[in-house]
Design goal:
With 404 residues, the chain is of the alpha/beta class. It folds into 2 domains: 150 residues, Aspartate Aminotransferase, domain 1 (Alpha-Beta Complex), CATH 3.90.1150; 236 residues, Type I PLP-dependent aspartate aminotransferase-like (Major domain) (Aspartate Aminotransferase, domain 2, 3-Layer(aba) Sandwich), CATH 3.40.640. The protein has an 8-stranded mixed β-sheet, sandwiched between helices. It has a 3-stranded antiparallel β-sheet with strand order 10-13-12. A two-stranded parallel ribbon has the order 1-11. Helix 7 links the parallel strand 6 and strand 7.
Length: 404
């Protein structure tokens, strides 16, 4: 067996399952899960219709590069959303959801034969695929802390020069999971300058870009590059998907866009990897990318939900409305002494509400786990259910205060 598999850590939801294994939640309360970021809003009917009306495509092998119509739906959306003109033949590719593409891109980009050992950087806390992808290339994952006092901005200045010299790939996530933070233009400028100096590729994970709470939509990596005169998008690949935007997590559909040279190499990798998108999925994807009405409606539902839930939780937790995404990244009360896992376990036992311990989404570096003392709540269910969960959390914390 590949010895690198032994380096993989348990996935956060497996750790959560183990945490709750011997707990019998209070039967007075119906279960409510805020633990997994799986969209629960209804899939638009027109997307399902496009899928089922294209089942004839199952009789043919799909092309790894996708059809011209599929790629043009990507570039059309990029033009409407960001005002960017990309070549559908050379600068975009379909992917089967952003998770598999994040992993596969790392295998394409990283040269593990290099000495010293190449580094793959990611924010900390982070989406665990970044770490797993790095480990299975033979690279060293390097975890860059975020700064709570700066709205959880990633502290790129804390990375030592020798790590930048070994860097081959840098994962960024904006809007961020789990913090909801959005990278501003000066931060992108700094990262591009570092990429020019050291030659690493930037993989910009943007799957939450269409769920935001401010009037101005989040700045994207390609958009930032264009604003800074980097029209060739050198060493930059953006990844996005329909899962959150269109409420189709089971469709496993998205695309990558950016540097044509990297796209060419990635297409070669994917041709051997066998990751072509089904023609039926492609038809549904084209319909989804070509429509914005359902995206506006979806965003409005999240705004209503967060407006109802956030004030309730602000009264008892260190939490605020994020820039974007559908998570609340909350600090647990001081009485818990930073034990986010114990907080999550007790909440589940007493009120049957599931939240994810923040420490499960981060790694300890120099004795500090930046997720410790925090919980991630995914507000993916409907407003009534999320509000009920928030009310139970308030009661749970009030109960704890009365008992101490």
């Amino acid at each position: 067996m590949n010895p690198l598999l032994a380096k993989l850590q348990p996935y956060p939801f497996e750790r959560l399952r183990q945490l709750f294994a011997d707990v019998r939640p209070n039967p007075e309360f119906a279960p409510i899960s805020l633990g997994i970021g799986e969209p629960k809003h209804a899939t638009p009917a027109f997307i399902k219709d496009a899928l089922t009306s294209s089942l004839g495509a199952l009789a043919a092998y799909p092309a790894t590069a996708g059809t011209p119509a599929l790629r043009e739906s990507f570039t059309g959306w990029l033009q409407r959303r960001y005002g960017l003109a990309l070549d559908p033949a050379t600068q975009v590719l379909p992917i089967n959801g952003s998770r598999e593409a994040l992993f596969a891109l790392c295998q394409t980009v990283v040269d593990a034969s290099r000495v010293p050992t190449p580094a793959v950087l990611s924010p900390n806390p982070f989406y665990q695929i970044y770490e797993g992808a790095a480990l299975l290339t033979g690279a060293e994952p390097w975890y860059v802390p975020s700064v709570p006092e700066r709205n959880f901005a990633v502290d790129w200045d804390s990375v030592p020069a020798e790590v930048w010299a070994r860097a081959q790939l840098v994962f960024v996530c904006s809007p961020g999971n789990p913090t909801g933070a959005v990278m501003p233009l000066p931060e992108w400028k700094k990262l591009f300058e570092l990429s020019d100096r050291h030659g690493f590729v930037i993989a910009s994970d943007e799957c939450y870009s269409e769920i935001y709470f401010r009037d101005e939509p989040p700045l994207a990596g390609l958009e930032a590059a264009s604003a800074l005169g980097r029209h060739d998008f050198r060493n930059l690949i953006a990844l996005t998907s329909l899962s959150k935007r269109s409420n189709v997590p089971g469709l496993r559909s998205g695309f990558v866009a950016g540097d044509a040279a990297i796209i060419k190499a990635f297409l070669l990798y994917r041709t051997y990897h066998g990751s072509a998108m089904s023609g039926s999925v492609a038809a549904a994807s084209i319909a989804a990318w070509n429509d914005e009405t359902h995206v506006v409606d979806n965003r409005a539902m999240y705004r209503t939900k967060f407006a109802a839930v956030t004030p309730l939780l602000e009264a008892v937790l260190d939490v605020r409305l994020p820039d974007a995404a559908f998570y609340l990244w909350a600090g647990v009360p001081a009485a818990w002494q930073g034990d986010d896992a114990a907080f999550a376990r007790a909440l589940y036992a007493q009120y049957n509400v599931t939240v994810l311990p923040g420490s499960y989404l981060a790694r300890e570096v120099n004795g500090v786990n930046p997720g410790r003392g925090r919980i991630r709540m995914a507000l993916v269910a409907d407003t009534a259910e999320c509000t009920e969960a928030a009310q139970r959390i308030v009661r749970f914390i009030q109960d704890q205060r009365l008992s101490t």
